[in-house]
Design a protein that fits this description.
The protein is an alpha/beta fold. Helix content is 63%, strand content 10%. The protein has 20 helices and ten strands. The strands form two sheets. The protein has a six-stranded mixed β-sheet with strand order 6-7-8-3-9-10. Strands 2-1-4-5 form a four-stranded antiparallel β-sheet, with helices on one face. Strand 4 and strand 5 form a beta hairpin. Helix 8 runs antiparallel to helix 10, helix 10 packs antiparallel against helix 11 and helix 19 packs across helix 20. The model has no long low-confidence stretch (mean pLDDT 82).
């Protein structure tokens, strides 16, 4: 993990080196000041002229100017290093999110993933900048002060260093507890974000069911847990800071007492004792920096460990080498078994078990049957949103596992019941299928989806903002934009998963016409509960939890008077 953290410094080595150089300059300035003060007291004050003192003051002013310049560079460019490293980590984490399998997002909350991308990396950025800087300054000043102090008075220096083991021991003892408290507070912050994201996303349902009190209680519970763990981490920080402050104050007390005794006995003069006291501050300052570094280390590394946890998560399996450009559209399932429990292929937990069927290029196959039979799962397996446990799926005779994910998905178009529109314009959402598409191609796709005329009635036409998830549009309008998106993509293999089930009959009929236009000349798999929408399919496959119950054309299945006939009769009986 440490090696990965250090690797983010490499692109910014120039600025980082400048930051460290300035840290050296500032540390040397701090170390020079007490030496100059000692010289003024011991030597310059005994001179009969003011010239040496003026020269000494001028040198001290120069030291302060150099120190101020170095402090500015560390404060500005040092933070720039942290910000750029944070940007790089955020980029890598976002890219990683894009490559993770669907199953990962099934098991993790959105709020938690957002937290790792924002809050966690903010503290990592602070550690990236201040960590090496504080460590470098602390070590340099610590060693420098020690060398100078031991030259002033060896005995007093050794007495002072006797306290250091207690500081190190206390740091080691508190580290683990503080790290765990920090990590737990981050986890709870993720839960707060998840609860908030869930509540805001479902605000319409909350208002419709007058469930604001329930949502407030849920948020209060997660918020309380965060406050609890955050308080624990602050308690450990408070304990650590207080004890460290006491030990450093105790150090002062010991030195002042023993130094006073040495002066009485004539073993230490006033100038040396003054310089020694000033250098104690140079000695204490690194200790305070170590304390700050320790706190930053707990905050930053607990955040980086959560970042590293995702970065090292296995990505979506893509070992295929075959690139397909222009497919015919033949699809075959050969004894396919799939379970959402990847470690369990037993038939009692399998959504699909030993499923086999073929779909010829240019034909339309409808999958119908009761909920839970695996129809939508079949649709997800073809573009490899999930991978089968056994058996295989082929496209034009090639196992989809042997095809590169990018080329496979580029040849598949999907229209589902749950349409997702991105926050942006109508144009942006249609062009999502092909960002390089021309305006003419976008308009043509919209016309084919029977949405062009409606778009022209909007205030800004194709440049109208649709709102988050397309909230400013109706369900039918969102669905037609998603259909226009697929028209623009122009795939040979089309999957329609309950594409019209959430719409009213009039809107369904309008969109059905668009879908028929979209399906022309393509291989189509349709999942539908409304059987009236699949009557014209080349083949209808009835599926339940046991597998394929029956298959055939609409007329053949009605004539069989089997499961399909019962479903069809039941739906139209209500009419």
């Amino acid at each position: 993990m440490l090696k990965k953290f250090i690797s983010y410094y490499k692109p910014h080595l120039g600025l980082f080196t400048l930051d460290m150089f300035c840290a050296v300059a500032v540390a040397l300035c701090n170390l020079y000041y007490p030496t100059l003060a000692r010289k003024i007291i011991n030597e310059y004050s005994l001179e009969e002229t003011y010239v040496p003192i003026v020269i000494g003051a001028a040198l001290l002013l120069l030291v302060y100017i150099i120190k101020a310049t170095g402090t500015y560079i560390m404060g500005y460019y040092g933070h720039i290093v942290g910000v750029r490293m944070q940007k790089d980590m955020r980029r890598d984490l976002f890219h990683k999110y894009q490559k993770l399998p669907f199953s990962y997002f099934d098991d993790h909350k959105t709020g938690d993933l957002l937290s790792r991308l924002t809050g966690d990396l903010q503290n990592v950025s602070e550690l990236a900048h201040h960590g090496p800087e504080n460590l470098f300054l602390a070590v340099l000043m610590f060693v420098g002060a020690f060398v100078i102090l031991i030259r002033i008075n060896t005995t007093l220096t050794m007495i002072m260093f006797a306290i250091i083991p207690f500081i190190i021991l206390f740091t080691v003892l508190t580290r683990r507890s503080m790290f765990e408290a920090m990590k737990n507070s981050r986890k709870e912050m993720s839960n707060v974000n998840s609860t908030l994201e869930n509540s805001i996303t479902g605000i319409r349902e909350t208002k419709a069911y007058v469930a604001h009190h329930h949502e407030q209680c849920k948020f209060a519970a997660t918020n309380e847990m965060f406050a609890k763990y955050r308080s624990q981490s602050m308690r450990w920080i408070g304990i650590y800071s207080a004890v460290m402050e006491f030990l450093t104050d105790l150090l002062y007390l010991v030195i002042i007492f023993i130094g006073g005794v040495f002066m009485i006995k004539g073993k230490l003069n006033a100038a040396d004792f003054t310089a020694f006291l000033l250098y104690i501050n140079m000695f204490i300052n690194p200790i305070h920096r170590f304390v700050t570094l320790f706190e930053q280390l707990q905050e930053g590394m607990s955040g980086f460990s959560r970042f590293y946890e995702i970065i090292t998560t296995p990505e979506e399996l893509d070992e295929g080498t075959v690139v397909i450009d222009d497919i015919r559209g033949d699809v075959a399932f050969e004894n396919v078994t799939f379970s959402y429990f990847s470690d369990d292929e037993s038939t009692d937990k399998a959504v699909i078990s030993n499923l086999s069927f073929e779909l010829s290029a240019g034909n339309t196959v409808a999958l119908v049957g009761p909920s839970g039979g695996g129809k939508s799962t079949i649709c997800s397996l073809i573009p490899r949103f999930y991978n089968v446990q056994s058996g295989r799926i082929t496209v034009d005779g090639t196992d989809v596992m042997d095809i590169t994910l990018e080329s496979l998905r580029r040849n598949i178009g999907m229209v589902s019941q749950n349409v997702f529109l991105f926050d942006g314009t109508v144009r942006d959402n249609i062009a999502y299928a092909r960002p390089d598409a021309s305006d003419e191609e976008i308009v043509d796709a919209a016309k084919k989806a029977n949405i062009h005329e409606f778009i022209l009635t909007l205030d800004n036409g194709y440049d109208t903002e649709v709102g988050e998830r397309g909230v400013k549009l109706s369900g039918g309008q969102r669905q037609r934009i998603s259909i226009a998106r697929v028209f623009l993509k122009n795939p040979k293999l089309l999957i329609l998963d309950e594409a019209t089930s959430a719409l009213d009959n009039v809107t369904e009929m309008q969109i059905q016409a668009s879908l028929e236009e979209l399906s022309h000349g393509r291989t189509v798999i349709v999942v539908a509960h409304r059987l009236s929408t699949v009557k014209n399919a080349d083949e209808i496959i009835v599926i339940d939890k046991s597998g394929i119950v029956e298959r055939g054309s609409h007329e053949d299945l009605i004539a069989k008077d089997g499961e399909y006939s019962k479903l069809y009769s039941y739906q139209f009986k209500a009419l």
